[in-house]
Amino acid sequence: MGMRRILVLNAKGGCGKTTIATNLAAAFAARGEDVALADADRQKSSLGWLKRRPDKSRRIMPLNWTKAGSIGAGTDDLDTIVIDGPGGLNTDHAKTLIAEASDIVVPVLPSVFDWNATLKFLDRISEIKRVRKGKADIHVIANRVNRSSGQLAELEQMFAAKGYPVLGRIADRVVYARHACDGTSIFDTSDARSAEARGQWIPLLQAVDA
Ligand SMILES: Nc1ncnc2c1ncn2[C@@H]1O[C@H](COP(=O)(O)OP(=O)(O)OP(=O)(O)O)[C@@H](O)[C@H]1O
Ligand SMILES: [Mg+2]
C-alpha cells in the first residue's frame, strides 16, 4: 500500500477539522506508523497541538503547509499524512490541497445551517477533476452529535439522496477539548472516556484503510 494521504476539509469554520485531523494522526501513530500532520491553516492550530504534545507520546512529524509554496513538501518515507485544512478557502486553494490527498474527510455539525453550507462545499469539490475521477474519496462525518441533534437522521437522509452518505457520527464530548489542550488524543490514553469515544472512529479508520 502507498502512503495514506488524508485531507480534513470543509470551507465551514469550526466544524471539527482540527479535532479530526489531530485524532486521526494520533490513531495511526498509535499503531506505530510514521505519521506527519500537515497544517494548511494560517491559525496553525495543529502545529500548536504538536508543540504541546508530550515527549513521551507517539511522535507525529509537523509540516507547515500554511504557505501556498510549501504545500506537498516533506512527505518522503511516511506511512500516513494527515492534512488539517483551513476554513473559508477558495476553490483554487481547495484544489491544491486535494491534489495531495487520496481521502477527503468532511466534518459537519448537526445544524441545518452547517449542512446547507457543507452541501454547497461538497458540490463545489465534487467538480474538481481529481474527485470526479474517483482519485480522492469523500467521507462525510457528523461531528459534535448529542441528544439535541434531533433532525440528524433527516439531514443524513437528505445528504444520502444528494450522493453524500454520512459515514459516521462523532459525539460531542468534553474529552476532545481536554486532549486538545494537552497535545494528546483519544488514541493516546486508556482512560474510560477516551476508550468509549474510540468506537465511533472505526468506520472512518476503516474507510481510509481501504
Ligand atoms: N466531537 C467534539 N466534541 C466536543 N467538542 C468538539 C468536538 N469536535 C470539535 N470540538 C470543539 O469545537 C471547537 C471547534 O473545533 P475545531 O477547532 O476542531 O474545528 P475547525 O473546523 O478546525 O475550526 P477552524 O475552522 O477554526 O479551523 C473546538 O473548541 C473543539 O474542541
Ligand atoms: Mg482548525
Task: Spell out the key features of this protein.
210 residues; alpha/beta; Rossmann fold; 9 helices; binds adenosine-5'-triphosphate; binds magnesium ion
Secondary structure elements and pairings:
Blueprint: E1 4-8, H1 17-30, E2 35-39, H2 45-52, E3 61-64, E4 80-84, H3 91-98, E5 103-108, H4 112-126, H5 129-132, E6 137-145, H6 152-161, E7 166-171, H7 174-182, H8 192-198, H9 202-209
Parallel strand pairs: 1-4, 1-5, 2-3, 2-4, 5-6, 6-7
The chain binds adenosine-5'-triphosphate and magnesium ion (MG).
Magnesium ion (MG) binds at residues 17-18, 41, 45, 84.
Describe this structure in words.
It is built from nine helices and seven strands. By secondary structure, it is an alpha/beta fold. The chain has a single domain, classed as 3-Layer(aba) Sandwich (Rossmann fold). The chain has a seven-stranded parallel β-sheet, sandwiched between helices. The radius of gyration is 16 Å and the shape is globular. It starts with a strand and ends with a helix. The mean pLDDT is 96. The structure holds adenosine-5'-triphosphate and magnesium ion. Adenosine-5'-triphosphate binds next to helix 1, strand 6 and helix 7.
Proportion of residues in extended strands: 15-25%
Helix content: 25-40%
Task: Tell the overall outline.
Answer: globular
At CATH level 2, the architecture is: 3-Layer(aba) Sandwich
Question: Quaternary arrangement of the chains shown?
Answer: single chain
Number of strands: 7
Q: Kindly provide the radius of gyration, computed on alpha-carbon positions and rounded to a whole number of angstroms.
A: 16 Å
User: How many helical elements?
Assistant: 9
SSE string: EHEHEEHEHHEHEHHH
Q: How many separate domains?
A: 1
Main β-sheet description: 7 strands, parallel
Low-confidence stretches: none
Ligands bound, unique? adenosine-5'-triphosphate, magnesium ion
The CATH superfamily is identified as: P-loop containing nucleotide triphosphate hydrolases
Spatial sequence of strands, sheet with the most strands: 3-2-4-1-5-6-7
Report the CATH C-level class: Alpha Beta
The termini sit apart by 10 Å
State the secondary-structure class: alpha/beta
Indicate the CATH topology. Answer: Rossmann fold
Mean pLDDT over all positions: 96
